[in-house]
């Protein structure tokens, strides 16, 4: 059969095998007329899009790489127990499972309770490592201490998603021991949003991996927090505002964002308290390192040096030092509307009298939300929590390392005290991702381990006033 095919082929291409007409002799060259196509762009915007497309096509054609696509995302938060804590949602594993976590700019570790948790985790959604095909057990112990308790377990690694972003190899704590009362349903854990340098695990936080890998449109994240502390009908969970990554929501603030650079190597989000006024009069406060304040979404109140807190309440007629469980706090007449404003080197930002009034303890006496705080070592002297942050739009910028504040818009203020269904944990589509370990602290600080500074507040925060650093 093979010989037959070969023979047929030879006959087909042999001269004279088949009589065919000979074509006319082709000319030595051909001329093809070219037509110039009119450009489609009509205006500057269209020309810009065309130019960008041309550049990207040529870059890819000749082996170059395009800049990584950047993105932005929003996470709607839950306001828990009348401003005690602010909760967002994330997803872990393959397939992804959603969890509610406290969003905390005062610490740097992510952890959730796992299936082996037996104390302090009732009614919480638990992480089941066996059900995730991408989970890796790092077989390393993990523990962290907060002002209102502690958590312990072991470190693992898995895909973590939040607000349209994903880190495929995020290290987190799978916790099996939680101090009773640290978590309130439906919360399953905590996401630290401070810098790697204070991570108890020694690993890069989720947010910092994204920021350092240029996954965000802008290298920043921002908060708008709602107020329910003065709402008589506040439920255990209410809408908490929004947390954005990669952009600022211009509908939630007015005017300019005033940025102040961090004074030293990034650890906590630290600013210097430059001035405080009470009822329109400035009070004397410590300077130098004693003016350093951690801007902390995971802390409910404001703690500061004893001399400064005493000076604040000295301007409020009828105020008295608290006793017993209220030691370190001050009482004052509930009939007094207290106006406090704080500056961090820029504008002076007022604190609503509703936020300054923590609670009423008698028919005439209320407790202030500023308390005496005694820290040690290199910990900041001030912890500025949600009592202040509910009054501003706050921005935490990766590069240059800084914190910015802006006045809340009417849109943001209109959300205070309005009952509505609290957001539920969601799993969204991923628009951008980054791999842990590609970036790093822009100041090249060495990773370290630290215990949260608000642990030093100890048990002075009682009841529903959850304090996490």
Q: Could you explain how this protein is built, in words?
A:
The protein has helices at residues 2-13, 44-61, 206-212, 306-314, 353-356, 386-389, 410-413; strands at residues 73-80, 85-92, 97-104, 110-113, 136-146, 149-162, 165-178, 187-192, 220-225, 237-245, 253-261, 270-272, 275-278, 281-283, 292-295, 302-304, 320-321, 330-333, 340-343, 348-351, 357-360, 365-368, 370-372, 382-384, 393-397, 402-408, 432-433. With 469 residues, it is mostly beta strands. The strands form 4 sheets. A 6-stranded mixed beta barrel has the order 2-3-8-4-7-6. It has a 5-stranded mixed beta sheet with strand order 12-15-24-16-23. Strands 14-13-19-20 form a 4-stranded antiparallel beta sheet. A hairpin with a 2-residue loop joins strand 13 (275-278) and strand 14. 45% of the residues are buried.
List keywords for this structure.
27 strands, globular, mainly beta, Aspartic peptidase domain-containing protein, 33% strand, single chain, 469 residues, 6-stranded mixed barrel, 7 helices
What structural category do the secondary elements indicate? mainly beta
Number of E-state strands = 27
User: How many H/I helices?
Assistant: 7
Distance between the termini: 85 Å
As residue ranges, the low-confidence spans are: 1-23, 26-32, 35-40, 54-64, 439-469
Strand order of the largest sheet: 2-3-8-4-7-6
Mean of all residue-level pLDDT scores: 83
C-alpha Rg, in Å?
Answer: 30 Å
DSSP strand content: 25-35%
Write a short abstract of this structure:
The protein has 469 residues and is mainly β. Helices cover 12% and strands 33% of the residues. Mean pLDDT is 83; it is low at 1-23, 26-32, 35-40, 54-64 and 439-469.
């Amino acid at each position: 059969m093979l010989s037959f095919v070969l023979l047929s082929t030879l006959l087909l291409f042999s001269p004279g095998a088949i009589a065919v007409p000979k074509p006319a002799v082709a000319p030595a060259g051909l001329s093809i007329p070219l037509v110039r196509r009119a450009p489609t762009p009509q205006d500057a915007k269209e020309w810009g899009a065309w130019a960008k497309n041309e550049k990207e096509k040529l870059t890819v054609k000749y082996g170059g790489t395009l800049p990584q696509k950047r993105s932005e995302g929003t996470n709607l938060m839950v306001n828990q127990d009348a401003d005690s804590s602010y909760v967002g949602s994330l997803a872990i594993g393959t397939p992804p499972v959603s969890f509610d976590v406290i969003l905390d700019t005062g610490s740097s570790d992510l952890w959730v309770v796992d299936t082996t948790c037996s104390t302090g985790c009732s009614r919480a959604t638990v992480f089941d490592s066996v059900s995730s095909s991408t989970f890796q057990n790092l077989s390393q112990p993990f523990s962290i201490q907060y002002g209102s308790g502690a958590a312990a377990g072991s470190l693992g690694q898995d895909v973590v998603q939040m607000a349209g972003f994903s880190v495929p190899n995020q290290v987190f704590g799978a916790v099996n021991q939680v101090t009773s009362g640290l978590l309130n349903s439906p919360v399953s854990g905590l996401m630290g949003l401070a810098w790697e340098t204070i991570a108890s695990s020694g690993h890069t936080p989720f947010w910092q991996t994204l920021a350092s890998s240029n996954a965000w449109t802008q290298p920043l994240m921002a908060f708008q927090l709602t107020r329910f502390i003065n709402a008589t009908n506040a439920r255990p969970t209410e809408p908490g505002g929004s947390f954005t990554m990669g952009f600022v929501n211009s509908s939630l603030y007015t005017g300019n964002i005033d940025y102040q650079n961090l004074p030293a190597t990034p650890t906590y989000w630290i600013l210097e308290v430059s001035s405080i006024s009470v009822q329109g009069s400035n009070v004397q406060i410590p300077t130098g390192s004693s003016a350093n304040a951690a801007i902390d979404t995971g802390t409910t109140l404001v703690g500061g040096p004893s001399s400064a807190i005493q000076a604040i309440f000295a301007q409020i007629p009828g105020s008295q030092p608290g006793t017993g469980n209220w030691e370190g706090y001050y009482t004052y007449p509930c009939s007094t509307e207290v106006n406090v404003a704080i500056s961090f080197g820029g504008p002076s930002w007022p604190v609503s009298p509703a936020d300054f009034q923590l609670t009423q303890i008698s028919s005439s006496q209320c407790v202030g939300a500023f308390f005496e705080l005694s820290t040690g070592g290199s910990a900041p002297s001030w912890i500025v929590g949600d009592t202040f942050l509910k009054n501003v739009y706050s921005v935490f910028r990766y590069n240059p390392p800084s914190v910015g504040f802006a006045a809340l818009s009417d849109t943001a203020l209109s959300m205070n005290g309005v009952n509505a269904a609290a957001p539920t944990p969601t799993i969204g589509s991923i628009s951008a991702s980054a791999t842990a370990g590609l970036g790093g602290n822009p100041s090249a600080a060495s990773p370290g381990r630290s215990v949260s500074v608000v642990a030093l507040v100890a048990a002075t925060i009682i009841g529903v006033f959850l304090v996490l650093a």
